[in-house]
Design a protein that fits this description.
Blueprint (H helix, E strand, L loop, with lengths): L4 H31 L4 H26 L4 H25 L4 E2 L8 H16 L6 H21 L1 H10 L2 H4 L3 H35 L4 H26 L3 H26 L6 H21 L4 E2 L1 H18 L4
Antiparallel strand pairs: 1-2
Helix pairs in contact: 1-2, 1-8, 1-9, 2-3, 2-8, 2-9, 2-10, 3-9, 3-10, 3-11, 3-12, 4-5, 4-10, 4-11, 5-10, 8-9, 9-10, 11-12
Length: 321
């Protein structure tokens, strides 16, 4: 089919941009975070997760503006599923050793990660999403950031006292360069994800695939590509805190901020198809990741298990199984 050539070329080019931009983004964010005394996990759940979640937020706002608000819920649920099963699975499989997590996940991050999934299920379970519920989700994310940063202050203060002044007190020129790299790479992350989504949608339209299926699979996967590339990059470098923190932070951001902000812009339509299959899969994946990280490591066999779950989800979504 000749009409598939152009969108396929756009997909390949935009994917390459995503790979390079995310690599620069991860390195620069880590340098800035370490320079000011932040732990790698805090870097993952704040700078990295928010930056890589911008495509979900922007695409969702555009969907509401174009009277296609059903894409928002499908995108959030599909992206969260891809983050858990595909991204964590890929990072675990590609890592030569088990991904070890030294940061304390149990105190704040994992409970809120699980809680956000259950809260979303309760909110949209009645196929209705109100403005009050949107504000509640935004408040939840602000509380998450507060407790995450507050809970790490003591450890960060001790780290600052032990670090050499030449590492902590970077000159302003160094920090400015890294901030510029972060901003520029974030822009390219968005542009790359945007063109990737557009090309995937065009390919799906040419192949005559329904809009809801596109949203929960192709669009969700497209907007999750930044998280995928950043997490793979961090995982292959042994930066497990960034890899896992990125997924946890991104899912919390998707649930609280993408849903919350979109709900303030316009009325969100909750597709029943998402409730029947996608939402259940997302909650199950959240619980599975919760138990998998209790020993503070992720092994390759656990990665393959996550892969199997994602394959099942895609298979049932397209009625292949």
């Amino acid at each position: 089919m000749p009409e598939l050539i152009t969108p396929c070329v756009i997909f390949v080019v935009s994917l390459f941009i995503l790979v390079k931009a995310s690599d620069f983004f991860t390195d620069a964010a880590e340098k800035v975070g370490l320079s000011i005394g932040l732990s790698p996990f805090i870097i993952g759940v704040t700078i990295v997760s928010i930056g890589t979640s911008l495509p979900e937020l922007i695409s969702s706002l555009l969907a509401v503006a174009q009277n296609s608000s059903e894409i928002v819920v499908s995108n959030v649920v599909g992206s969260n599923i891809a983050n858990i099963f595909l991204i964590i699975g890929t990072a675990s499989i590609m890592s030569t050793n088990a991904l070890s997590i030294t940061y304390d996940l149990v105190s704040v991050d994992l409970p809120l990660f699980v809680g956000s999934a259950f809260l979303l299920a309760l909110i949209i379970g009645d196929e209705n999403f109100s403005t009050g519920e949107a504000w509640l989700l935004i408040l939840g994310y602000l509380m998450y950031l507060f407790y995450t940063i507050k809970g790490s202050e003591d450890n960060e203060q001790e780290a600052k006292e032990e670090q050499d002044s030449t590492i902590v007190n970077r000159n302003s020129g160094f920090l400015l360069r890294q901030v510029i790299i972060i901003i520029a790479s974030a822009i390219f992350l968005y542009l790359g994800a945007n063109y990737t989504i557009d090309s995937l949608i065009k390919i799906s339209e040419i192949l005559n695939i329904g809009k809801e299926i596109i949203a929960v699979s192709a669009v969700a996967l497209g907007t999750s590509l930044p998280e995928l590339i950043v997490t793979i990059s961090a995982g292959t470098k042994g930066q497990a805190e960034i890899a896992v923190g990125n997924v946890i932070g991104s899912n919390i951001f998707n649930t609280f901020m993408v849903m919350g902000v979109s709900g303030l812009i316009g009325n969100l339509v909750i597709p029943k198809a998402v409730l029947d299959n996608g939402l259940t899969t997302m909650v199950a994946g959240t619980i599975l990741l919760f138990f998998a990280t209790q020993d503070k490591k992720l092994t390759q066999w656990e990665g393959w298990l996550f892969f199997i779950f994602y394959g099942w989800f895609i298979g049932t979504t397209f009625n292949l199984l």
